[in-house]
## 1
Amino acid sequence: MAGASSGGLQTKRELGKATRDAFGRALEAIGENHPEIVVVDGDVSNSTRTEWFGKKHPDRFFNVGIAESNLVGVAAGLAASGKTSVIASFAAFITCNAYDQLRMSVAYPGLNVKVVGSHAGISIGEDGASQMGVEDVSLACSLPGFVVMVPADEESTKAATKAMLEHQGPVYLRVGRPDVPKIYTVSSASFQIGKANKLRDGSDLTIVANGIMVSLALDAAEALESQGIKARVLDMHTVKPIDRDALLAAARETGALVVAEEHLAHGGLGSSVAYTVAELHPVPIRYVNLLDQFAESGAPDELLEKFGLTAGKIGEAAKAAVAAKKG
Amino acid sequence: MANNLDALLARAKSIREDIVRMTTEAGSGHPSSSLSATEVVTALYFGGFLRHDSKNPHWPDRDRFILSKGHAAPVLYAALAQSGYFPHDEIMTLRKTGSPVEGHPNMKRLPGVEASTGSLGQGLSIGIGHALAARVDRKDYHTYVMTGDGELDEGQNWEAAAAAAKFGLDNLTLIVDRNHFQQTGPAEEVLNMDPIDGKFTAFGWKTQVINGNDMREVLTALDRANAVKGMPTCIVSLTHKGQGILNLLRKLGDTNFHGKPLPLKYLDEALAEIAAGV
Ligand SMILES: Cc1ncc(C[n+]2csc(CCOP(=O)(O)OP(=O)(O)O)c2C)c(N)n1
Ligand SMILES: [Mg+2]
């Protein structure tokens, strides 16, 4: 983890910082003017980047050791006494290891605890499946009252961190380890909770994506265009609450959807989109995700290829969705 | 014994070489966390303590070793490879795409791995399950679990500590690799768990505190653990993180060296220090 080869995902786009770095920087900056923000760490602050806040504000930073259950309880107590608690650990550990604490101590009383899961997805690479949070979005979505955010790049993660801290109530923010392609600029990075960003318009289908899959969705849309298929691309950065209006418009106006996410098939963005579209305006949907399996160790780009999280797979799914619409 | 001791010391050196080589080749991983545990793992696999058969990894009567501090996988992989569980050169595929020699142990893919670990704090409970199964099945195998010292921050260990004592599991031995560091700093500073032996004693365990980088002391402690009746044993194994390449780590100004491979340019120096046995 701490030492694994860093660096970024392969892309033809300009590479920006990892979303965990963007979160760390935004927290450090916003923390300056917000004395109510406290951070609780579980011995991973140099991985999650909360150490940048911690170094500036040692009096508002608590490392409780490798004890996620206790960590969540401590954060809940701080929030119950009026603090804005920010906690960060690996997505896999903070959701899976402390789930009952998240449920009972945070979600049930609806406390102002911001839960940040870093090292999400398989793009962490070499550390392997035990460290890969691939079910975190599903678990977070199952916590009543939680807002669930999966930003795509550096600037949108900074905007997401700001939105998270301004929001009253529990939030889950998912960030990743490798450097990722830039999609937004400082000025174009709007992050309104529950409102998707339309990055590209098209009439034949809509690709709904979040996290690292957004840049791949854009790559796929470009490739599809050269084959005469016009794809709309939505950055669905908030999984809960999902943008029903954007999905209804996409279903009505384009008639077919592909959902792409770096997550298991169950309970993530795909489930949410399908649930919504089935209710509002049923159209064919195809999915690109990690299916129902654990991944393994390897180089990030090689794993994305091996587990089918590529622009090519999104393109194939797009063609299948368009064909189903005609059939 | 003397000959056996010499052989074990030589074996520990070759395990250390493997640890450093495979992590440097992988370009990531946790060599320092593996090096501190080398004497204990060597004694278990090559000192006659683990009854095991690499040609029959699922042999029901085998003794179990669970590496709860799964990030120290390289020391386990070296011991398993040198025991013949898989071809030795496979350790050099550590962390590479397609390799079962993964970043953290995966029991479904690699023979000899008893538990899939990597989320810290869970191995002792799994070990209790094995020990209870032995009791149910009237088998006499022994279960060894190794945790880190930082890992003891996890509350699940203390739930497990109480349970193991309740069941009087004298077929269970916990070794705490007390290397005084965890990820972000000294274990005493991150979360002080001292006295570790006193805590386990209070929970109803037989405890020993040893120099875990001294092969002789390790052998004696494991012998003693086997003789304990009616209660589980905890060996607090005082070690150095990075044992074997401490001079080099001091030179690099990082005696925790957590989660970092040695850069290739230091590999020869590390191997020389291991060979010299300082
Ligand atoms: C549940 C969980 N939380 C956090 C981590 C990240 N992590 C990996 S190793 C480590 C430090 C472990 O310290 P220690 O148990 O003392 O082992 P050492 O490396 O010193 O041998 C941490 C925090 C993890 N693997 N699992
Ligand atoms: Mg330690």
Note: Chain B touches chain A at residues 26-30, 70-71, 95-99, 102-104, 106, 109, 116-121, 150-151, 153-156, 182-184, 190-191, 258-261 (CB under 8 Å).
## 2
Amino acid sequence: MTTMADDMLNLEPASLEALSRQLGEPGWALEARRAAQEAFAALPFPERTEEAWRRTPPELFNPQGRGIVRLTPAFDLLGEGEPEEPVGLPFEKGLARLGQVPESLGPSGSRLQEKFSALNAAFRSGGAWVGLPRGRSLDRPLQITHQVPTIQAPAAFFPHSRIVGERHSKATVVESFASQGGDLLAAPVVEIQLEEGACLQYVLVSRWGEGTRALTHLDVRLARNSQLRVLFLGVGGATTKAFLTGNLDGEGAKSEFLGLVFASGQQHFDVDTLQNHHVPAGNSDVLFNCALNESSRSIFTGNIFVAPGAQKTDAYQKNRNLLLSGKAHADSIPKLEILANDVRCTHGATFTTYDQDQQFYLQSRGLPDADARRLIITGFFQEVIERLEGPVLVEWLAGLMQEKMETSLGV
Amino acid sequence: MSDPLLKIENLHVAVEGKQILRGLNLTVRPGEIHAIMGPNGSGKSTLSNALMGHPSYLVTSGTVTYKGQQIQELPADERARQGIFLAFQYPTAIPGVSLGNFLLAAVRNVRGAANVKPLEFRKELMACMKDLGIRQDFAGRYVNEGFSGGEKKRVEILQMAMLRPSLAILDETDSGLDIDALRIVAEGVNRQVTPEMGVLVITHYQRLLDYIKPDFVHVLVSGRIVQSGGPELALELEARGYDELLRTHGADAAPVVAGA
Ligand SMILES: Nc1ncnc2c1ncn2[C@@H]1O[C@H](COP(=O)(O)OP(=O)(O)O)[C@@H](O)[C@H]1O
Ligand SMILES: [Mg+2]
């Protein structure tokens, strides 16, 4: 269910109406789009001199002159089991059920404060809506797939997904963003809200096609004693800029951000994580492992903010980089802003090149060069993979990494 | 006499531009156990690495003939598949790769994937681990990561048991082992030795040779074998130490004049 190039819309106010109509939205949803469009127009375009944009030029994400791809996501469940109706809807259906826009998309909502989020709110052209009912545990991971087919003319795709984990719900959600050929600008926004005691594993798979520039926003709000584990998995796309933010709003919340980036060719990944400790006794843990082949590049910026009074905060972050080629380049930038005094906060980064001794050790046991390389890289990712829960998910991820390895290493 | 399993002739090896082995000769026939002893820095590990095909150890002249074929140009994995095994003095950790998965990949490559059934492999692995006093949960642990010195050495011998080599090179397998572990490891090696197999036991001390009885003992000093003999030579060296040999053959000693 994709709108192809011939009936693509442009970034004009009139397009809002068409989009809203095509999606069957009520009038108040269109009004919210208009407000977002105004906010977008009023906000300045980011400058290269801004800290967040120093290493990835914001102009790459200029949406002007592009058509809009409209896409309905697919929902299914990973692994074997009884056929079940997955708990997910296209965003606009969920919105209609709610009967109003969520606060973040409202006139003074957080989404309207940032240029690209406002753009997404105005021209939203896809996305998923997932409500995890109170006290329920999902046995199998829910998979949401956004698969943009080959496009002929330059286009933009603005999916907005919203996941609400009600009190004491427990689930794993895997959301995959993918595209085929063509010049695509993808600017997804994902909002996750965890109510008290909710527990969520969320995997964002960024497997865009070669011609895609992706600008991703993930925002999570964590209420008291809720637990979140995010995995950002970056394998596809030409240029990726991602802002991943955890807001520890309630005491005792635990926010774990994991990352696996496997870059090859000329791929560029620039990921900012931010753990916002607004209240005491929060725990955040970031582990980002990037393996870089050929002339690829990665930038990891780990931000930790601890508000005044957010005592007993425990914040940890680690970024490991494995450089598989002399031409690959990785940067690791920690940014800590700590305004409370009784906190524990650590940061670490490592950069390793391909280890000749490991290679020789494996080869001395009969493994050909390519197998040895593959095993070393798999091992490098394992530290992150083993943090995840559920054999079905782990196996699925291993398969995905294997696939990337086959295309980028030819092994 | 049978054809040699391994014949090393006039081997010269350089590491990082530095000449370490300087004309080493050695012949190992099937069924023979040779001990190579020598002081620290004499080139024992260099010989091991060069025989296994480490790319940093450059053969500058001489030949290594294994089963009638010159192998000094072959990559390490090819040598492994042809039946050469090195138990490392300092085994390398491979983070994130479990010992079980690693060994399965190794055994598949060495024996051929079609000849390895996962279930039988697992059984064999468990049996070998039991023989060597290695706890079963080690199969799930990452290769050499956080292993004690002794655990690493046992795991090297475990790998040897699984790969069933024709030529085994044990580089200071005794170091880091207490006396009980030494016995278990030595028994493990002895169980594997067949009449077709050749073994090079490289050691600094004599004590391992109480358990693995060598047929020949060679003394390596400054990149050359300066003395060869039977098992009694090991005891002699133990009593005498290496000092005298170092004075006469060490790098600082007067050059040996041909014909002198
Ligand atoms: N990878 C290497 N890089 C640099 N020098 C090395 C390397 N390996 C060995 N050497 C040098 O070669 C000499 C012999 O070392 P080695 O073969 O390890 O001796 P042994 O095992 O007999 O103690 C030493 O001087 C050592 O410093
Ligand atoms: Mg040594």
Note: Chain A touches chain B through 24 residues (CB under 8 Å).
## 3
Amino acid sequence: MSTTRVALNPRPAVTRSSRLAVGTKRAHSPDRHAEQDSSAKRRALESKISATPRAAASDIKSKHAERERRDMERYKKDIEWKSKYTKAFPAFSFHFDADNLSMSKEAINNAKADILALKGKIEDFFSKDITYLISDYNAQDAPRNKENRTQRRLPGSACPSPTKTRVPEATLYTKAVNLEIGVWSTSKLKVILDRLLSDTAEPKLPIPERKPNLKDLLATEKITGSTTERDPTQRRHDWTYFEPDSYYVLVEDIHGKQATIIAHQYTPKKGEKEPWPVLYCDPRSSNPFRPFDEKEKKRMERVQQEEKSKKDKAREKVELQRIKNVERRVSHGHDLRRAASVGNLQRRLTEEEEEELEVVEDLGSANASGFLASGYVAASGNSVSIASTHPTTSTSGSFVRQSSMNSALRKQQQHEVLTSRKAMAPPPVPHDLRRTRSTNTLRPRVTTKLPKRDEGAKPGYCECCREKFSDYKTHIKGDRHRRFAENEKNFRELDSLLGEVKRRPVEEAWIEDQWRSPDEPTPEPEIIDIQDDDEEEEY
Amino acid sequence: MEVDEGARLFTDHIDVDAEDDLEYDESEEVHMKNKDPAERLEIEAEIEDLNRKVSQLRNDYKLVDRLGTGTFSSVYKAVDLRHHKWDNTTWRGHHPPESSAHYQSAPHPRNSTFYVAIKRIYVTSSPERIRNEIAIMKDCLGCRHVSQLITAFRHKDQVVAIMPYQRNEDFRDFYTLLPMDGIKAYLRCMFRGLRDIHARGIIHRDVKPANFLYDPLSGVGTLCDFGLASRIETVTGSSANCCFHTSATARHPHGEMKTTKTSRSEMAKKTQKEARARTKGPSHLVGYPSNDTRPTAKANRAGTRGFRAPEVLLKCPDQNGAVDVWSVGVIMLFFLTRKFPLFQSSDDTEALMEIATILGQKKMEEAATLHGKLFCTNAPSVPIQGMSWPEFCERLNPSLEEPLTPNPAWYPHAEIPPSKEEHLRDLRDALDLLEHILEPKSVLRYTPKQALYHRFLREDIGDDEFRPHLFKGKGVCAAFHDEDDHGNCAVFHPSTDQLRLTKAGQGIAIGNEPCEIHQGLV
Ligand SMILES: Nc1ncnc2c1ncn2[C@@H]1O[C@H](COP(=O)(O)OP(=O)(O)OP(=O)(O)O)[C@@H](O)[C@H]1O
Ligand SMILES: [Mg+2]
Ligand SMILES: [Zn+2]
Ligand SMILES: [Zn+2]
Ligand SMILES: [Zn+2]
């Protein structure tokens, strides 16, 4: 078994694709084809003017060459453009016109992160010193601009928001224009950032004069790992190959830009079962990937036994139910006779169960499950005062609830279910169901098997201290962890969120949840159709 | 105001039955009565420890039992001592009586104990991770069948989150016994929860039975544990060029196939062909760079073994709600095959191979290509053409066509099994839905909404009638809702120009109705 481990290289290698890809692009519609041709002609003309002798050639080969040359030119231009902007970016400072942004908050945050990544600056306040104002203010349709809605200030906002000091709506835009400060729309900003941060489109290698340039080819292959143009029976010295007649699984980036994702060779051992998953799909086995062998046979027999007793119990419950129904019919309401007989049956059931199951996880939840005199069970395990348990079914257009059971009856049933329930010790998490929290392969695997009872030392990983520990309890009492825990700074953002989810006493809520006049004159309440983007939502 | 309303509702609907109250009056001691003494002592010690560490707890909550010990937290059951002292409307929401999520909204009667679940997050979690979980729960206020955040607080490194207690049973105790109607109820709750959180740009990432609190008795389920949840992000830069599908959009929540041919896609096709040819050849000619200096593929792979979608295993950098839908598909397999767990893989490689032995090489290749990956294997157990999911279920469960005898104590409280025809019709529909939610290509996988409108789950009244809109979404009164850059929210009075600042969970319009504040105003 071998799995590749690769060093991380922050700089993606520029891939040069094989020249074979050139010319395989075909437009779909005749229209597009024509368009492409005419633009190609135009560009050909332009390049004639720029005096490239090869552009004038008329045979197919040179047409290809021409296209490649153009691709190369575009590529160079792109590189040039990128390098120009990347160099300039640290000198740029941006201010976001918060009143006039048509992009989602998340997208804006992404853009801000991108700007910072490119070493640009973001200014919280508008001044003459900023380089670009980011604003979607549109001088033409200003009054209808739906984004203007946000200009209404919310009095009493929790945040000491710069909103208060901000110059509202068009003013910033006008100011920028007057100060001759550039204004970029959010979409323009996004296009620029995306282009700057994306890989440069694959350049097409110019066809080397007749003989391919060996050095170039080698370089390409070295980087991409593509076997294109290579005798597939040839092995290369800097690659790892699977053993002859071995079985493997290999997952690679189709573009060849990212490191191998999975490379795993299976090494079968004599006399042992296959090391790769085999689908047996035997209904008698516990699992489709297990053959039905002696072990599974034993397991099946055990389970069948359990199932049988479960079923017996279920049957008994049905019987109990029937008895209760009869009793309900016989005597309506709270009747001692019924209580007694049901009680007997109940006791019998419980006693049986006690033998093999840890019984009754908590009587409390039977109470907590909330049977109300109104006859409704709270689905939540908490009582509610309105019907709520059943998804509606509707009959001829009107709602009909299925809940018509007598509350005492339900209570009884509830009790039964609870008695047959396993003890409430946390359901053992099967080993193969443990989850991992890592978001990428390089992070240390967090295998926190934290507080498991009576296990002695509980090893794990502390995200606060960024270190592994051999015992949970010792670690959290340790100096390093205590220092982290005592430092309020570490919890600043969390605290600000916790402030927003504070539970409000009724009186406080009453006062807060009142209509009030805006504490400053606001313009006519504009009723702007928020649904003006016709996009249909499919969520 | 809401409080008065609540009180009124309460008196309207309850005629208190003293006998019931007495009989079921709570005394905490019974909670742990039946536990083994050592465990009881341990739980008591834990409760004592938590009370000491987070002193704010003591005044308002009385811890009575432990509900679960997870990998990242312990969860306790507690009495909400002063339930009616608080405004409970923000986390209750306003799901109408016709909604399956009404259980979340119905006010609690004053004469009975209200239980909460207190999640004690292990202090080795980073504050940022905890913040993420709480922020996401806050954004999920008002979502149906989703565990609602009542409040959360911190003392030093110890953070606790308070949620309503949800009665539930261990999946192992009911998944083989639940008849079709129960499965439908389970899935409807699940998909409603997912529909609502995905609409808020949130992926749960850890959908599995332990994180879906289902009560077979009432047929109500609640999605919990947002510890691994993340937000759907639009991928930019180089990662965006990796996949042949777009990011999630409102119109295409699972992304869309990129159809335009580019030199990139043409190249990919060619590489794919070569790889296929190579796989057919001898193994010693298949290799990979030894000292790979190329950057490592980065993708969120948080989740639980056996529940990860192909795109997670294939390291798609641009994941969306489709990953949750796949996990629901895996749960649906448990019901239909009556086996749990099904996948036993210990790592991503094995997980991928397990799926490959079922779906076959061709489908795996196609799924891989969608995310810009090559999938090559010569393992003899991976067929070229695999089997369909219905076939898989039929082979694993020979009695698939036999209706189960319902347990009358459970939802829908039927006493006799459905007719064979009825069962076969349901089964056909179930298997059809299964194929759509276990679709290996994420872009083609059904969205929760599509699943809810599929024949198997559809109800007479469409799910749209009950969906809670975003605060500033497509609700009928959305024009009067506003949010500033800092997330401060307010609603406006349509005629007086007065405003009201709102808290998370307030101002959520449902279906075609205005939000609770604009009721009767628009
Ligand atoms: N609101 C609730 N009502 C009842 N029980 C709950 C509630 N919330 C959580 N639980 C119980 O506690 C267990 C653990 O909760 P949760 O999944 O949120 O924590 P976790 O530590 O992240 O879990 P894990 O690591 O095991 O996945 C749940 O599986 C469930 O049994
Ligand atoms: Mg969990
Ligand atoms: Zn620590
Ligand atoms: Zn992808
Ligand atoms: Zn409203």
Note: Chain B touches chain A through 240 residues (CB under 8 Å).
## 4
Amino acid sequence: MATHLSDEELIKRAKKGDERAFTQLVRRYESLVYSFAFKVCRNEEKASETWQDTFVNVFRKLHQFDGRSKFTTWLYSIVTNSCRMKRRQRKLDKASVSIESPTESHDGSDDDPSVLTIPPWKDTPLDAVIDKELRTLLDEAIQRLPYDYRVVFVLRDVEGMSAEETGKILKLSVPAVKSRLRRARVFLREQLNPYMTA
Amino acid sequence: MKRIHKHSALCREVARHIQNQLDAELLSPACREIRKHLRRCPTCTAYLDSLKKTVLLYRRYPDPHVPAIMREKLFAILKTTT
Ligand SMILES: [Zn+2]
């Protein structure tokens, strides 16, 4: 089959039961789904399970996709739902900490740089390899971030989605997306700070 | 003794702004005061730099590859779901 068919055409054919069109669709998006699932789960086994669940759900629910949103938006929402179901089944949220700050609603003072002087961070040259040690550190830091914040951070800052698209995917308002993103960034910065100033 | 940098209300405002925007909108005229402050305040500059590096590190985290066996498993499952 020609590989240049548009998503719309592939979806149309797949809906009619064209297996090759569906295979083509999987091929086109398998890396995106896997990489996103991995970045959210931070674990290969869970990412693989989420990846599989996602495409099984795409297969089952493709007839519900009406083309009003972008296919990728729909796809990301299926991934995040699959991921959420998995977490619920396994109760994985125990390890992450709460970053809801009780002071925020009173005076908004939760977000000051918490020290008087901020030590400068090490340089991170663009071509530097993220070695195993750093990778582990990044994995551990983001796993401590509660899922609802982590998924916003990955969609916005890593995948480069707009606040509007992220809101659509997660069924959140744009201000909620922005507030979670801000807190996620601050939290991750704090986590990496000791390592990056050492 | 070294003078300790004291956070002004402006520092707090700048911190809030860069947590939200990083440096995305700093070039706009509305952010003139923030730019001016950043030129003078090493604390806020270091803070912005560290937030940008946080995002950059996660962006540069290498993409994992889809294990080939997963594809086979998936299509085997789909054959039984129809
Ligand atoms: Zn300042």
Note: The two ends of chain B are 76 Å apart (CA to CA).
